[in-house]
Amino acid sequence: MSVDATTGELKALAAGGPVVITATAGTITAPCQVTVQALKYAITLENDGRGTGALTVNGAGAEEAEQGATIALNATPAAGYIFKQWTVVEGGITPAPGSATGTATFTMPAGPVTLRAEFTIETVKIPAGTFMMGSPPRGYHRMGEVGGDDYELQHSVTLTKGFYMGKYEVTNAQFAAFLNAKGVEYATGLPTPVVTNPVGGKLTWGEFSGKILFLTDDWGLKYEGDRWVPQSGYENHPAVRISRYGALEYARWLGGTLPTEAQWEYACRGDYPNKATETNTMPFGVGTGRKLVAGMANFKATKPYDLDRKGRYTDDTQSASTGTTAVGSYPANNYGLHDMHGNVSEWCLDWYTELYYRDSPAVDPTGPGTGQYRVARGAFWRNDAEWCRTASRNHNYPDYWLTNSCGFRVVLPE
Length: 414
Hints:
This protein is mainly beta. It contains three helices and 27 strands.
């Protein structure tokens, strides 16, 4: 530590103390004792906006610390998210991962530190593999749509790359975080012919600029103050009234995309024995795969389905669903995916044509090159069980299907 001979100003501070300073004025020497406190530097923690969670430093909120102090970080994800990593925004440090997910330590430098906690949606790893896509010929669990057997023509498909799929359908809270991070503004008079006085948000960036992102809904989102927020009680329900453009842009924001139709069906079926060669593919991906009855999914439970009862039948002891339920309310398949049957239909990446299965590629199919409709899978809360079958195919206009029956989930690269 030094003292300016003219002003007497301390030029540096040393940790610890006391420190003895001798000041000389002419021939008079005057010793004095000074206790010096070490400088403390600020620690700032922030979420990355793609997820959220509780962040602490040494068990408390953001604080200050001395140079050389050992700092312990902890990030606890909110529901529906998992911790990804800590990113250093300011400070030039390298946090060392702790023994538990979301924990890390570092030594405090001589300056402020800012760290960002990165979260992502909770996902399930789906391995590469081969499976029978579609449903068996002349099966009594076919829908009998136009196109006959070719509509769900059973055929072998190989997916050469594994992927991560959202464990749950994207929720209202998660979609609201995306809208607010992107600065999507409240808009009226949106260009859709299927809703009177539509209110919601539209894209102002990228290849789909000007397209509708979503519409507000009593089960979905509303604009409050200057932010998009979920309707009270629907925070953890699936996001609804989402256009296919909105679904895809959310997925891209997370670094992923929407599932192809083949990825969706492969994941829905679960990891059952003889998946690659099974010729009597089960109609469902939960339980034994043979039936979908009350308590297994959010669907019209008065119209269940059971192979042992020749398929569809009526059960007047049950009640029909009246709306969406919180994601994860029903059992997962054996990959760990929830709500693949019912709750809301889910947008896929592919264009749709009715007879695509006649000549679709056997390896990594991605759908027709163009079309009028986009694929949606899984059926929704008001559908009979037979519509919820794993092989059942649905479709709609990417601009116009803005109902409380359709949502989506995300896939991320392996």
